[in-house]
Design goal:
12 helices, 6-stranded mixed sheet, alpha/beta, 5-stranded mixed sheet, 383 residues
């Protein structure tokens, strides 16, 4: 099939999908047949979307609204995929990822952490470069340090894949240097994999039509990024810091799950619809919207939660501090006397952002221009 015909059919499919969605109002009632349907959003320059195939890697891009496809022989790993558009650098594709249990990492002298990138690749790059995590070529320069992304790379912004591929590349480079990169799953990764597309940038919906697949299938188990995402934990510990996207609630601790078991259950159940997990008492505790590790906001919204109860959560979790994202703030900040650190600094807005920096136990905020500021008790949540 020619690219032109493929694009025509894909655009028709996209319009049909949009029409079907518009035809059902929020009350579930059909709308009149003459209701106008909004045109699909312009395609994003995007890719690569890479899939494992026997003896090769299949690569696809959307560039200037056109589909580009290439097959790269893979006699051994890694395999280099050169750029077309979207992510601007060559990617070294490794063998399919194996599960990361999130087991504790010890004796780390330098940590940088951020969360809720939400497709704001340029802000993420600026932060990492200004604070010495990557160099001008966007390559690892943090030595034996560790970088933690506390969930929510997906949704909202227009450069989700660029951010994912940078993290993918940095993970390999950091390992080689004796350091580490830890990507944790947040609620938006889990939403996308479960076909909850409420927050997906409209340009990606257009691209999915051009690529001929539903958006979640672009990250299916046979894809490089999909397999990699499915290897990631929800919770990870570095020394006495526990990193988790939403937080640890008392109700979650009542499940009595070991952390490795919880991470394994998340991996095994990714994509499970609510109708299924809501009937399972353990999965319900992992996914429900108020007290699960990926959704919890209680540190910032529960007026009954006091220092003693937070200290008890830390004690039962075996750590001194919990580092969380998910609830947007103006800056990285301390809560409950430093027991809780928020690292969602509203990068999602595409205007600002900060890193948490931990160096030999000292805490600071890394800004967009590389200035280090004291980490202090923070203001209330933005949302």
């Amino acid at each position: 099939m020619s690219n032109g015909l493929h694009r025509t059919l894909a655009l028709a499919a996209c319009l049909a999908y949009a029409g079907a969605a518009q035809a059902q109002a929020g009350d579930g009632q059909p709308r009149p047949a003459d209701t106008k349907v909004a045109a699909p959003a312009p395609a994003l320059d995007d890719g690569p979307y890479l899939s494992y195939e026997p003896g090769q890697v299949s690569a696809r891009w959307v560039c200037g609204g056109k589909l580009i496809e290439r097959k790269i022989p893979a006699p051994r790993w890694p395999v280099e995929v050169k750029p077309e558009c979207g992510y601007p650098r060559a990617i070294e594709v490794s063998a399919p990822a194996t599960p990361d249990s999130g087991a504790p990492v010890k004796r780390v002298s330098r940590i940088a952490a951020l969360s809720d990138v939400h497709g704001q690749y340029e802000i993420m790059v600026q932060l990492l470069r200004a604070n010495g995590v990557i160099d001008q070529r966007h390559e690892w320069r943090y030595g034996k340090g560790h970088l933690v992304i506390v969930g929510d790379v997906f949704d909202r912004g227009p450069q989700v894949n660029q951010a994912l591929w940078l993290i993918y590349e940095l993970e390999r480079q950091a390992r080689k240097a004796g350091g580490g990169v830890h990507l944790l799953l947040g609620n938006h990764e889990i939403m996308v994999l479960a076909n909850d597309l409420r927050y997906v940038n409209d340009g990606y919906k257009t691209n999915a039509a051009l690529l001929g697949k539903p958006y979640p299938e672009l990250y299916g188990p046979d894809t490089v990024l999909g397999r990699w995402l499915r290897s990631k934990p929800v919770m990870a510990q570095i020394d006495d810091l526990l990193f988790v996207h939403g937080g640890i609630a008392e109700e979650y601790l009542a499940l009595g799950l070991e952390r490795g078991d919880a991470n394994a259950r998340y991996r095994a159940s990714l994509g499970t619809p609510k109708a299924v997990w809501s009937q399972d008492p353990v999965l319900s505790g992992l996914y429900n919207g108020k007290t699960s590790p990926i959704w919890y906001r209680g540190y910032f919204t529960d007026p009954q939660l006091d220092q003693a109860r937070v200290d008890a959560i830390l004690h039962r979790s075996g750590v001194k501090r919990i580092v969380v994202g998910h609830t947007s703030m103006k800056t990285v900040g301390l809560y409950f006397g430093g027991a809780v650190i928020s690292v969602d600094s509203s990068i999602k807005n595409g205007e600002s952002g900060e890193l948490l920096i931990v160096e030999d136990g000292r805490l600071s905020r890394g800004t967009l221009d590389g200035t280090r500021l004291p980490l202090t008790q923070a203001a209330s949540a933005e949302d």
